[in-house]
Specification:
2 copies of one chain form a homodimer.
Chain A: H1 4-29, H2 36-43, H3 47-54, H4 57-82, H5 89-106, H6 108-121, H7 126-146, H8 154-172, H9 183-198
Helix pairs in contact in A: 1-2, 1-4, 1-6, 4-5, 4-6, 4-7, 5-8, 5-9, 7-8, 8-9
Chain lengths: 200, 200
C-alpha cells in the first residue's frame, strides 16, 4: 500500500497535466476545430501514444468533463446543506445561480466543448444528465422548504433546472446579451423567473 | 413602368430560387460546414457567378435572413394590434411565444445559420438586433396594457425578450430537453417566467 498510493498519485498528476494542456488548446480553438494531431502535439505525445492512453479525442474530453462534474457535484452537495436554512426560495435560487455561473466560467472550455459535442451528436451525454438530475434534486429541496402549498411537480423542478443551466451558460457565451449586465440584477431576475417555474 | 415591374418580379423569383436552394443545403449540413463550392453547385451557378451575384457566402445568408426578418416583422406588427385586447399579460406572452416558436421552426435553417455566424464572429448582426428591438416594443405594450402599477423598466422588457427568443430557439435546437414537451404546458410556463421578468 505504501508504494501504491504515490504511484497512483503520480499517474493522476501526469494525466491531469495532459488534460490541462488539452483544456488550454480547446479553450483557444474550440473542440470541433481542434485536430487530434494538434492535441497530441500540445500535450507532448505522439498521436499513437495519445490514442493508446486516452482512446480518442472524445474520450479525453469526457475525462476532462469528469473533473468538472466532480467539482459541480461537490458544489451542489454543499448547496443541499444550505438550502433549508435560507430565508426564501428566491434567495436560494439566487445563490444557486451565482454559484453555478461561477463554476461554468471557471470550467468554460470543457462546458463549451460538451455543448459542441452535443451539437455534433444531438445526444445528451450521461454525465451531463447526472449533474442535471443533481440540480433537479436541489430544485425539489427549494420547493419542499420554501414553497409551501406548491403541489410537487416534476415539471417545475425540471424546467427550473433547465432554465438555470441554459440561461447562465448562454449568458457566459454572450448569446444572451440583452440580460442585465449587473451581476446582482441578473441573478435576482433569474431567481424570480425560476421561482415562477417552480410554482407551476 | 409596364416592363419594369415584371422584370423586377422575375429577378426576384430567380433570386428566391437561388436562396431556396441555399437554404435547403444549409438546413442539411449547417452553415459553417457548407462550402461555397457546394452552395454554387447546388444553386446551379459557377462559383464565380455565385460570387458576382451575391458577393459572398455570408452576404447570401444575410439575404436569406432578410426574408425571415420580413416575415417576423409582419407577425409582430399583427401581434401589436392584438396585445391591447388580450385578457392578461400571461395570455399575451403565451400567444407571442407560440407565434415566435412557429416562425423559428418554419425558418429554422436561416435562424440556425445566423447563430453559427454569431458564434464565428461573436457579434450580433444588425438584422437580429432590429427584430429583437421590435420584440422589446411588444413587451413594453404588454407592460403598458396588462401590468398596471409596474414601473416601466427596460430591464424587464429586454430580459423578457431575450428569454423568449433564446428559450424557444434552444428548445427547437433540442438544447433544452428538460422543458415540458407538451406545447400548451411549455408555453404557459414560458409565459409565467416572462411575466415575472416583466414585473421586475
Amino acid at each position: 500500500m505504501i508504494y501504491r498510493i504515490p504511484r497512483q498519485d503520480r499517474a493522476l498528476r501526469t494525466e491531469n497535466a495532459y488534460l490541462d494542456a488539452f483544456e488550454r488548446l480547446i479553450s483557444e480553438r474550440g473542440y470541433t476545430n481542434t485536430s487530434l494531431d494538434a492535441i497530441a502535439r500540445e500535450v507532448g505525445l505522439t498521436k499513437a501514444a495519445f490514442l493508446a492512453r486516452f482512446g480518442s479525442k472524445k474520450a479525453a474530453l469526457l475525462l476532462l468533463f469528469d473533473r468538472y462534474c466532480a467539482k459541480a457535484t461537490a458544489v451542489m452537495e454543499e448547496m443541499a446543506l444550505h438550502i433549508p436554512t435560507m430565508p426564501s426560495a428566491e434567495a436560494a435560487i439566487y445563490e444557486l445561480s451565482t454559484v453555478l455561473e461561477k463554476i461554468q466560467l471557471e470550467d468554460f472550455a470543457p462546458n463549451r466543448a460538451m455543448q459542441e459535442l452535443f451539437f455534433e451528436e444531438l445526444k445528451v451525454d450521461q454525465r451531463t444528465q447526472k449533474i442535471f438530475l443533481e440540480l433537479v434534486d436541489l430544485m425539489r429541496l427549494v420547493q419542499k422548504h420554501h414553497l409551501e402549498g406548491v403541489a410537487y411537480t416534476d415539471t417545475g423542478a425540471f424546467s427550473g433546472s433547465q432554465i438555470l443551466v441554459s440561461v447562465n451558460f448562454n449568458y457566459i457565451l454572450r448569446a444572451m446579451p440583452a440580460l442585465p449586465r449587473d451581476h446582482d440584477t441578473r441573478h435576482r431576475m433569474i431567481a424570480l423567473m425560476i421561482v415562477a417555474a417552480l410554482r407551476f
